[in-house]
Design brief:
77% helix, 22 helices, MetI-like fold, mainly alpha, two-stranded antiparallel ribbon, two-stranded antiparallel sheet
């Protein structure tokens, strides 16, 4: 067995020493949250006002249930997913980098990220669709709204994972970058992206799985007499489920599984095999991840020429960066804008502030239309949904941590389980939920249990994929060292596994919690077979207000959900992020 340097066992015991300093962390900038929330309120109000002016009757395209159309529908859905993912990865890299390293910008970007992650897009989708329809042709508005919905289901966990990786890059790697004068794009491609590669790939896989979950809502959506259906795999599954056509559901699920397996073999598995080289470790794993398609690419002359050209491009950037030299700290002087530019900025700020004030006043006037009894329903519904979200998260952590560690530690198990997990995470729970609901309604408290189960089906994968990424990223030399020290199972979990997983668990939990609040909109209120069933909850209130066109109640319930999730992120998850950055950095 390969050997590794023996580590002091006391240095591995980091977890019990960290939570004593949990609360004394940098004071949050509440004014940033307030400004961001005001901006969201104004945006919501503006979209609602545009939605009022949308056409009263909109006819969507018919959806065929013939198996012959499935390849065409799958290609359309794959194109929408790809467009949303390209937007997501671009947003992730730029936004996460700015939030991680620009202290002034982070005061606004981090609260904004919390708020955006908490926006219940399923309740916001009608407003987005109707407002876009008032401005754009129907077909273009429906396509843009579908891509926006899929984008919002993909981007947040990737952004949080990228931000977490940037904040936990080992200090010795940072110092090496300074010694070799790596700056800008060169530092990004040689230090930061390689260190974050494993987490980004696993979260990209999760983003695609989450995108399939929301695809059904994105491609087949109706508000009263307004029909926004789009041909695609999600619309096919929705139409088949609504029609009770089990054979068509089977055809659709089979096509979805086929697409997932092809993506796993041609995209994700090669990327994981390639990213294994970026693990921060002194000893190579005995069984690194492998991919037949990755081996084919390595043997390809065309791919070799592409790699050579890419390397030459990076070397050119490196030479130009080094030629520029590193400016001395004292040589960087802040340039002050002229009086005219300062005047322009001041006037722009006044105009923007006036616009926000006007929007807040108009939104407040709309909220006056919410009756006292409806505010009471919002309070009770918020408490009920909070309890379901907490129960779903507790159950998720109970089973995802051991399974994720087993997959991350055993490459043979990973080869078999990886596609299975992707398929299970990608099959839209909303397609199977009516069947599950019919069975559970016969049990006492069936709707409450069904709501928790649907929350689990849609959000537990965020935690599992992050746990697998964290377990995979644990250096092999630390595993050998824990074995050489003779650690038992409990000591190994307490001193190595849980501390290493902690940053990934925070990322998975924050996105899973936000996803559970969003999933409550379809979990607590369901319509099938001409029958509507619901339970007490904030998500049910949002769905009911959407169906009835009660815009004041919809605005009030949506803002309540945003406020609750933002407070949870600020009071709990942001502190845990700081704890992960301070105590659980891989050095």
């Amino acid at each position: 067995m390969p050997t590794a340097p023996v580590l002091d066992r006391r240095r591995l015991r980091v977890l019990p020493q960290t939570f004593a300093g949990f609360w004394p962390i940098e004071r949050p900038a509440w004014w940033s949250d307030a400004i961001v929330l005001i901006g969201i309120v104004v945006l919501l109000y503006g979209c609602v006002r545009l939605a009022v002016g949308a056409p009263k009757i909109i006819r969507g395209r018919g959806i065929s249930l013939s198996p012959a159309v499935l390849p065409y529908y799958a290609a359309l859905s794959l194109a929408r997913m790809t467009a949303a993912y390209v937007l997501s990865i671009a947003f992730t890299l730029v936004y996460g980098y700015k939030a991680a390293f620009d202290r002034r910008a982070s005061r606004v970007l981090l609260p904004l990220l919390d708020v955006l992650q908490s926006v219940p897009i399923l309740s916001f989708l009608p407003v987005v669709l109707l407002s876009l329809t008032a401005l754009l042709p129907q077909a273009l508005a429906a396509e843009l709204a579908a891509i926006i919905l899929i984008f919002t289901s993909q981007v947040w966990n990737m952004t949080f994972a990228w931000y977490q990786s940037l904040r936990t890059v080992p200090r010795d790697l940072r110092e090496a970058g300074r010694v070799f004068q790596l700056r800008g794009l060169l530092r990004l491609t040689t230090i930061e992206l390689p260190f974050a590669a494993i987490g980004l790939i696993w979260n990209s896989m999760m983003s695609w799985a989450g995108g399939w979950f929301f695809l059904m809502a994105a491609e087949i959506f109706t508000v009263g007499q307004r029909d926004f259906r789009l041909p695609g795999l999600g619309a096919y599954l929705s139409q088949a489920a609504a029609a009770g056509d089990g054979r068509a559901v089977g055809y659709g699920v089979t096509m979805l599984i086929l697409v997932i397996v092809v993506l796993d073999q041609l995209v994700w598995r090669p990327l994981l095999a390639w990213a294994d080289r970026f693990k921060v470790e002194l000893v190579e794993s005995a069984e690194p991840p492998s991919s037949w398609f990755y081996n084919v690419l390595l043997d390809s002359k065309i791919f070799a020429a592409f790699r050579a050209r890419l390397h030459r491009w990076l070397e050119t950037i490196s030479e130009r960066t080094r030629a520029d030299g590193v400016p001395a700290p004292g040589s960087l002087r802040r340039t002050h804008p002229g009086r005219l530019l300062s005047l322009v900025w001041a006037n722009s700020g006044l105009l923007f502030g006036g616009f926000l004030l006007y929007g807040v006043v108009r939104a407040a006037m709309m909220l006056t239309g919410v009756h006292v009894a409806e505010w009471g329903q919002i309070v009770v519904g918020t408490a009920a949904t909070f309890m379901r979200v907490t129960a779903a998260l507790a159950f998720t952590l109970a089973w995802t941590i051991p399974l994720g560690v087993a997959i991350g530690f055993n490459s043979r198990l990973a080869r078999w389980c990886q596609p299975i997990v992707q398929i299970a995470a990608s099959v839209p729970a909303t397609a199977l939920f009516p069947v599950l609901l019919v069975a559970m309604l016969r049990v006492a408290g069936g709707m409450n249990l069904a709501a928790i189960v649907l929350m689990l089906m849609g959000t537990q994968w965020y935690v599992l994929f992050n746990v697998i990424a964290g377990a995979t990223a644990i250096p092999q030399d630390l595993k050998y060292s824990s074995a050489l020290l003779g650690m038992g199972r409990a000591d190994r979990w307490r001193t190595l596994i849980l501390p290493s997983l902690f940053p990934y668990l925070v990322t998975g939990a924050i996105t899973a919690t936000g996803g559970a609040w969003n999933a409550s909109i379809v979990a607590e209120y369901s319509t099938f077979g001409g029958r509507t069933v619901q339970t007490t909850g904030l998500g049910a209130l949002i769905s009911h207000a959407t169906a009835e066109g009660a815009y004041p109640l919809l605005l009030a319930a949506t803002l309540t959900m945003i406020l609750i999730v933002t407070l949870l992120n600020r009071l709990v998850w942001r502190r845990l992020y700081s704890l992960a950055e301070e105590r659980f950095r891989m050095e």
